[in-house]
Amino acid sequence: MGTSKSYKATVTGQPQWGNLSSSVTKSCVGTTVPDNNLKNILSKFTNVIGGSKKAGRANSKIAGRGGIRTAQKMGGFLGGFSASGGNLKQTLESLGLNNLVGKSAEDIINNLIEYCSGTSSTIDDRAAKEAIRKLMEEMTSGAETFEELENKLKASLDKESLQEIIIKYFGYYILEHLSVMFYEKLVREKGKTECSNLFKQIKDFIKSRLKEMNKTNPLKDMDWGSNDAVRIIKNILEDVLKVFEDEN
Predict the structure, then answer these.
(1) Using CA atoms, how far apart are residues 162 and 175, in angstroms rounded to an integer?
(2) In Å, how far are 49, 87, 115, 138, 158 from 149, measured between CA atoms?
(3) What one-character-per-residue DSSP string does 48-111 give?
(4) Which of 91, 128, 151, 169 can bridge 70 by disulfide, Cβ–Cβ 3.0-4.6 Å?
(5) Are the C-beta atoms of residues 147 and 103 closer than 8 Å to each other?
């Protein structure tokens, strides 16, 4: 994933960084982490990246831009797929990805991840790419063929709205930023078992809190190449971050 050293160059001198690092380290003990500790970690993370408004409007140097850009491209793919009635061939062709028609599920997913996230030139870009990888794995688990992938995507969009899927994506995005910041450091200092246990609890906490989030940005019939799409994606990220920012 990455190391916390890359982040320290960006946030060095910020008291919020030390507070976040201390909260994460103290919670990595291999046992059940109290909800208050998890709330503090997510709240302090939001402070480190500049707050919900700054990061959500892509004005943070640490997080926001890569996540927003990737979410917009992902929305274009999933929105097009939904609008086509679940026709994967038609959707891929509409995006200029004709070469993927008939390929294996793995090939299509890997290429879609690259299409949505682009070149990973920053830590934020890498977090965005890993987040969409985790989301796509969750949505399409078990699919091996083109037809199986199409059916899995249909089932996912039948179960959840596109807005809910993008909210879930941003949950993974937050988790990946925390992973880049702390995972390798904690493995060295605390051990892999303790670190994995903490991150599973953070993941579950993020998911549970976002399930309760108000869904106020309908995405039906969205023109995904428009400024409106960018504005709404920013709204969603800001709303997601507010869920945790308010946990003081």
Answers:
(1) 20
(2) 35, 11, 17, 12, 14
(3) HTTHHHHHHTT--SSSSHHHHHHHHHHHHHHHHHHHTTS-HHHHHHHTT-GGGTT--HHHHHHH
(4) 128
(5) no
On the question of pLDDT at 86 being above 80, the answer is yes
Least confidently predicted of 97-106, 169-178, 183-192, 213-222: 213-222
For the record, the structure tokens of 218 come out as 């309908």
Question: pLDDT tens digit string along 45-72?
Answer: 999 999 999 999 999 989 999 999 999 9
Phi and psi angles of residue 55, each rounded to the nearest 5 degrees, phi first:
-70, -40
Q: What is the DSSP letter of 32?
A: P
Query: Which two three-digit tokens encode residue 51?
Result: 């707050």
Query: At residue 102, what are phi and psi to the nearest 5 degrees?
Result: 85, -5
